[in-house]
Each structure stands twice: as structure tokens, then as C-alpha cells.
Q: What sequence folds into this?
């Protein structure tokens, strides 16, 4: 990550450059208060108050900045992101009012993944001041969570294998006083047979594993509800023996994006000290090709007891999630939420920006959708339509892992996962892309977090009443 200092700091009257936010409707009236020279400077920069425009205006021996927004009275997370991306290093404050939700995009707008580059030429930090001191720490925590997802997803598979995901879980456990248990390699075969089968063909240094982190704010008191967060950690997906094309494989370093989301969300839950007993479960594998790879037509046992015929080795993420969701269900959870880069069908239906959301309960879906709208992290609900479950029928096993038709692929994958979640458990599933193919202010082209902020604010409301 690129932060050399916290990019949001308390406003104690220190020197800072003013930022004025205007839109096309009020720009002319606002500009009338300026000098002729200042108006000329704005005209030279073709500034008219349109969204995401940025201008620098001379002011005596100094200068101030102007940003175009849709509505200066109702800012979004992204209203000041373009300013953060383009202004010089220094400290800034909004001239009329506070940044509010724009604190988020101010930070993510300065994200840069520079692990493999000479970063000496990187622009120094742009610090935003605010008098809303109580909002600073939560805003920093959320932006760091988003940047963590970006960092993990951006890292190539050779440096972000199962062992590296384990290291991230260890780091999280140490930071918050959690306990981590990891099962690796052939030790998975008995209790997590589908995780083992998918990951067994990988090279030794990328051996499969399952991480189970536990944490409780109250030190383990039984009164707090159990929250289980599960993330798909396929660190690279070749497709297995049903091998992907070169184009289809190009971005498969991001197939551990679900794990990245789950780790980031768990960190937010622990940092906020929500009154829950947390279980973070991350199955991590590389879906590789070798003589011992699982095959189309194989029948796998699962932790839950169901047998699964393999219709397609490229539908591997749902297999490892099946064992992980079974483990989550065994904790008697109040709520289970999982994240996975699961289906191309979800992207065809919703595009890259909207994660597909599937839930068993309408009220859970409504809470997540509303939290996403309120915090500029929208999601879209797709159905778990039971009739489509017939697409997973098998002649020789309890279920197939893949359908033979092209209908409702995201929902059918969700129905497969539903088989491994315990009866009556409140469960939500995010099918996310974890990648942004084109940049927008505050959201660079790279790994991306979709649904983390929506889920966190829903959990805060559910467990802390906030």
C-alpha cells in the first residue's frame, strides 16, 4: 500500500489549502465572488462545475482548489477522489462544510500498487483535514480494508499462494488476539476431502490448506452470537483438466478475491470489536494440472456427507466452499456470509461493478442492499430459485458440481453452495468479480473490493445497533 501517513487527520486550524466544491448549477453564482483574474484562470482550465473536474486558482501568494461534484450538499464516497488523485502533495480542507462520506474516496484515490516497481517517483501524500474527528478512525479502517483487498488480488499467484493467504490470516490473528488453526496438504483428505481434491495437484510450495481463525470480543462468552465469514481462496485457476483458454486464464490470480474480501471484512469486525464470536474460514488451493489432478467424472466425498460428481473441474471454487461452509455451519452460527469469485454468469448478468447477492431470507438481502446503497458499495440480489436445482442432478452421485446447460449459472452455483449450509441458518453469498477493468475516481483499474463495506455496515447495524 502507498500510505506513508494517515491521509485523514483532525483539523486543528493548521495550514491547509482550501478546496471549494461546486456543481454546474451553482458555479456561475459562486464564480461571481471571485476576481477577474481568478475567473480567467478557471476559464483557461475549462472548468464549469461538471463532475470530477479539478481546477487550481491563484489566490494572492498562494492558491486554492475547486472540484466539480453532482451536489455539494450531498456528497458521495467518490466526490473528492479526483482531487486526491490529481492535486499536489500537501494538506487540504474543504472550505464550506466537511467531507463526510468523501473521506473514503480521498484515501482510495491515492492507492497505488507498487510492489514490483520503483516507487521513488510516487506522489507524496495528500492529507485531508476534518473537524468530524469521530469519523476519522472508521474511515481509515474501511479504506485500509479496501486497499488490503486490492493488494492481495493484485499480487501474482507465485507470491500469493495458499501459504501467503495463511500468512495474512496469521497476521490478522496476531493483530487482534485471535487464534488460527491451519490444516495442510494430505491432512485435509479425511475432514476436508473436496479442498484436498481440488488442491492436490499443485506444487509442494503451493499445497492446499484450510485456515480457521476464531476471535471473540468478550473472550469467548457464550452469549455473543456466532458470525462465520468464509472466502474462496483459489490462488490460481488453470481450470484443472478442463483447462481454461489463455485469455480465460490471464486474470486468474484474482480467483482468491473471495478470500481477500473475507479477510478484510474479518479485520473490520475485529477492529470495531463487534459483539460476536467470529469464525473466519478460508480454504486455499491452486487448481493446477498434474497427473494426480482430480478429473471430470470423478465422484468426490464432502465433509457434509454428500457425494459430488465432477461435471467440470473448472467449477472448483464451489467445491472448496462446500467443505468450508459445512465447517461454518457446525459452529451453530447466527449468520454465515461468504465471498467468492464464483461464476462468469454473474458478470454477464450484472457487469463488473455489481456483486451478485444471494440470501435465504428476504430481510437479510434487504439489509445488505440498503447498507450498500447508503455507503456507495451497491450489490444486486439474484434468486436462489429451487426449481433450478434439477440442473445439478447426477446419475451416480448425490449432486453434480456443474450444470450441462447455460441457464442461470450464478443462481445454480448458489444452489450448489446452499446444499452445504445447515438447515435454517441465515446465509448470504456474494459472487464478486474482485477486479475493476476500467478506472473511476477513487477506484483504480486493479483488484477491487465489492461488497465489503456493504457487509460491514450491515453487520454493525445487526450486532452493534449502529
A:
Amino acid at each position: 500500500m502507498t500510505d506513508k501517513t494517515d491521509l485523514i487527520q483532525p483539523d486543528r486550524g493548521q495550514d491547509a489549502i482550501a478546496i471549494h466544491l461546486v456543481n454546474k448549477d451553482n458555479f456561475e453564482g459562486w464564480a461571481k465572488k471571485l476576481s477577474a483574474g481568478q475567473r480567467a484562470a478557471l476559464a483557461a482550465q475549462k472548468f464549469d462545475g461538471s463532475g470530477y473536474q479539478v481546477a487550481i486558482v491563484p489566490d494572492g501568494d498562494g492558491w486554492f482548489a475547486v472540484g466539480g461534484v453532482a451536489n455539494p450538499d450531498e456528497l458521495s464516497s467518490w466526490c473528492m477522489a479526483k482531487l486526491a488523485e490529481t492535486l499536489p502533495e500537501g494538506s487540504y480542507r474543504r472550505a464550506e462544510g466537511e467531507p463526510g462520506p468523501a473521506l473514503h474516496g480521498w484515501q482510495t484515490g491515492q492507492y497505488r500498487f507498487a510492489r514490483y516497481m520503483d516507487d521513488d517517483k510516487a506522489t507524496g501524500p495528500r492529507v485531508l483535514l476534518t473537524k468530524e474527528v469521530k469519523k476519522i478512525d472508521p474511515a481509515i479502517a474501511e479504506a485500509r480494508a479496501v486497499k488490503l483487498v486490492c493488494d492481495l488480488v493484485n499480487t501474482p499467484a507465485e507470491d500469493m499462494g495458499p501459504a501467503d493467504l495463511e500468512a495474512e490470516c496469521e497476521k490478522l490473528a496476531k493483530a487482534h488476539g485471535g487464534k488460527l488453526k491451519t490444516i495442510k496438504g494430505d491432512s485435509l483428505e479425511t475432514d476436508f476431502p473436496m479442498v484436498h481434491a481440488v488442491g492436490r495437484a499443485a506444487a509442494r510450495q503451493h499445497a492446499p490448506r484450510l485456515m480457521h481463525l476464531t476471535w471473540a470480543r468478550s473472550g469467548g462468552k457464550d452469549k455473543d452470537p456466532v458470525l462465520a465469514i468464509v472466502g474462496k481462496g483459489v490462488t490460481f485457476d488453470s481450470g484443472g483438466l478442463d483447462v481454461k483458454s489463455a485469455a480465460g486464464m490471464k486474470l486468474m490470480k484474482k480467483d482468491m478475491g473471495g478470500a481477500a474480501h473475507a479477510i478484510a471484512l474479518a479485520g473490520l469486525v475485529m477492529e470495531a470489536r463487534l459483539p460476536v464470536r467470529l469464525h473466519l474460514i478460508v480454504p486455499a488451493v491452486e487448481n493446477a494440472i498434474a497427473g494426480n489432478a482430480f478429473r471430470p467424472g470423478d465422484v468426490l466425498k464432502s465433509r457434509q456427507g454428500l457425494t459430488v460428481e465432477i461435471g467440470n473441474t473448472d467449477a472448483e471454487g464451489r467445491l472448496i466452499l462446500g467443505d468450508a461452509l459445512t465447517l461454518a455451519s457446525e459452529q451453530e452460527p447466527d449468520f454465515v456470509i461468504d465471498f467468492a469469485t464464483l461464476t462468469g454468469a454473474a458478470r454477464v448478468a450484472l457487469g463488473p461493478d455489481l456483486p451478485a447477492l444471494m440470501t435465504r431470507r428476504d430481510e437479510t438481502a434487504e439489509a445488505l442492499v440498503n447498507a450498500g446503497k447508503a455507503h456507495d458499495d451497491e450489490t444486486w440480489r439474484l434468486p436462489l430459485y429451487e426449481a433450478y436445482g434439477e440442473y445439478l442432478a447426477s446419475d451416480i452421485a448425490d449432486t453434480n458440481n456443474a450444470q450441462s446447460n447455460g441457464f442461470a449459472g450464478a443462481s445454480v452455483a448458489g444452489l450448489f453452495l446452499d446444499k452445504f449450509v445447515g438447515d435454517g441458518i441465515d446465509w448470504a453469498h456474494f459472487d464478486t468479480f474482485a477486479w475493476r477493468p476500467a478506472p473511476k475516481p477513487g477506484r483504480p483499474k486493479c483488484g477491487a473490493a465489492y461488497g465489503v463495506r456493504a457487509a460491514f455496515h450491515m453487520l454493525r447495524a445487526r450486532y452493534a445497533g449502529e
